[in-house]
Amino acid sequence: MKNKKTIAMLGALILSLRRIEKSEKNPILRISRHSSFVLLILLALSLRTFGQPNPANLDLSGPWSFQIDRNDEGVKEKWFTKTLDDRITLPGSMASNGKGDDIAVNTPWTGSIFDSAFYKAPEFAPYRQPGNIKVPFWLQPGKYFKGVAWYQKTITLPASWSDKFVELFIERAHWETTVWIDDVPLGQQNSLAVSHVYALPAKIRPGVHRITVRVDNRVKQIDVGQNSHSISDHTQTNWNGMIGKLQLQAKPLIHIHTVKIFPNLKDRNLRVQVQLINTTHQKTRATLELQARPTASQTSNLKKISKALEVQADSSVVEMEYDMGSAPLLWDEFNPNRYVLAVILSPEKGKADVEEVDFGMREFSSSGTQFTINGRPVFLRGTLECAIFPKTGFPPTDKAAWTDVFVACKSFGLNHVRFHSWCPPESAFDVADSLGVYLQIECSSWANQGSSVGDGKPVDRYIQQESERIVNAYGNHPSFCMMAYGNEPGGDHQVKYLTDFVNHWKQRDNRRQYTTGAGWPVIPENNYNSTPDPRIQHWGEGLKSIINGKAPATNYDWSGIINQWSIPTVSHEIGQWCVFPDLKEIAQYDGVLKARNFEIFEATLKKNHLRHLADSFLLASGKLQALCYKADIEAALRTKNFAGFQLLDLHDFPGQGTALVGVLNPFWKEKGYITAKEYSRFCNAIVPLARFSKMIYLNDEALDVPVEVANFGNAALKDTRSTWEIADRSGKVIFKGEFPKAVIPVGNGIELGRIKQTLNQIVTPSFLTLTVSVGVFQNSWDLFVYPAKQPEATDEILVTDHLDKRAVDALNQGGKVILTARKGSVKPEFGGDIPVGFSSIFWNTAWTHGQPPHTLGILCDPQHPAFALFPTQYHSNWQWWDAMSHSNAILLDAVDPALHPLVRVVDDWVTSRSIGLIFECSVGKGTLIVSGIDLLTGQDQRPEARQLLTSLKNYLHKKSSRPSLAVSPEKIAGIFK
Fold first, then answer.
1. Helices 399-411 + 426-435 axis angle, to 10
2. 616, CA 20 to 30 Å: which among 157, 241, 384, 788?
3. pTM
4. Sign of the CA dihedral with 633 first, then 639, 644, and 646 last
């Protein structure tokens, strides 16, 4: 741009001088003018050439030569000495350039495949055919290659770099690189977390040279684990290539290598460690200067300090203290104040080197069982980022992309992101710094399922080295608050190895908190524990979990779990609640990865004649998913002195059999059933909470609900008005009240008062909502009130739990019958083997080996007269917990494909069967309602069952016409054992 401006100025100058020259009549003066004209042009050209600083970086992005090395013979054959015969564009990957092999049944994927049905099940046979390969376990690239590929570029080193130290900078490679310049080897690196940087030979001359990079993305001796999100096809793909900045960087011969900044809030100063590199191999004198300035403030720069020193012949470390003034600006989620520290090295001879390093004045520590930020309690409300980038198949290195991610997280009330078994690029840290997001970083490994730690394998040393590289590269970022080796380790000697890992870093660097691994092991040496114990559904619990095995309530918490430890505890991967696929999403996959798995799911829906219900399945299951997440998150917030939670996940996880666990899709976009505003009512810095002992009441009972608040805001709340109200579905407020004003300190478990309210004025079945407000923060809970006294029974309608002779005779005579099946009475071929529960599917059925439930809640028409006395929405809510806990699924197509149920169950998206809970049909001359829900057993203790049965009887009583679909009594009887 500067060159274009210079040329434009020169053009204007030339035209002006020519006009002057032509206007001059005196030949002598004309010659003088002409000479001046030439001199001015030369002067302008000299300014253009020499007025700009010498370039410090040479951009290598753009076209490169390229070649696949299928047989790994390039080193032996010295490919670095020849010209490669293909072309590729970098930054990028082979897949983003359309290089590699077509996807086939035998594609050598990186990642566990727990369910082998794709390879042998007949329903997947069409997708195993060449030209129509569609894998169901993750997103699918257009091309795939695992092995060695070579990249090559001809470059010109400027003459001005003859007295420079020059490095090749590859911001991120995947994953092992070997580099040559011309025929000179520069070495090999294999970090998955930081830049690959190679020093060019000191005696290299300016001019034309050839850089050759060999990239190998195979798992070899160093096995971080095939499911590690740093390498796995489950998420970012096991790509081959180089991304981000690709540069040659020129530095002075004596230069700054690293700067480490250790803030000290108590003394309001910094301890600064500067590593210097001296490539002259001669001692020299120099001056090191430090000066800090805030990045977004009108505050003037802080004072400059300097230190005279002797730079050693190779490498040396200098330590200095820097005073941050009497009132430094602190960094946290509410006030992400940042500084830049300018570090200037001025050798006695030679050119100065300048580094500018961002940092924040913050102390992320702990007090008892809670984390603290600058001495104030902080509660982590986190999600995972598992390297999910469908457009590219590799992580972004630009700030705009990471801004989208972290803004989405914050809009949904989160303040924390855990990077599951991988480490993001620099831009992610930069954006997290600017927005105030607390990050947990992991050392590229999930050493399990084929790998392990602590058993003396090469991965042990690699993880330690990777942790050093990560801290050296990103350790100054205030957002980098926590670190673990990686995820859920395996290994007989993992405890000893990970104990040493934690102790090493606790002694080495106090800028963050350390734990062994995400999930386990829990050891006394941890700064904090990561454990799956505090959550409402565990792996393997199935229908015995809190949310599926216990009647709805909100009065439980995890105090009994966390109080066994004296350090903070973070709950590991809570949630994992699934939703039906959003098939409209398929069109969004217009990059490297395609949703072929969604295409399979859509085809299954079409085959089962249910495609028209896809959006309804999405919305109904999504509402249930949101309810499950609300229950999980509120349980964490109710736990006094808890440290926080990490969701799995705020957005969908596209791998591991397709785990649709997000309220956002993989592009961090909403799906249409819950907004950020709605979600942040129960997930935020300040959240009102209510401890219901149950969610279903009779009108002869009274509410007695303790109300509290979690306040993890910036400060205590003073003079804040706290109120409550109960409204019906129309929004009409029936009851309301106010809590006494009080100072609400930072923390949780802070009592506001109790709601005590009789319900006897509720005379009809009612769906009510309690809303508690603490200032501008609100949270709501749905509750259901039914009449204690039911209408008198009528002989007009026969209710039975089996289709006996009496029921058949009644139907043949034109009677009305409700057949309510006992749980477990439906034959497997009619759906009796489908596990039904209240919650949605946990993670997915493939990777949990079929953990129940296999369903995603109900779908119904809330305006149908069958529900006139059982108020409902179109989706599951707490009043359906009892029904789902006493249910048999019924495969409607096995009865009659034309059946349209009153209550449908949303099936697992892999099978997408037409499943009903309640349907009606004509049998003989009569009308039959078949309920897969047992509405009779233990009815005295089940007000929801009584009320639903009353509503169905009321519907039949008022119904004058028979259903148009007729089913034989033999067919109905055949459903049951």
1. 40
2. 384
3. 0.93
4. negative
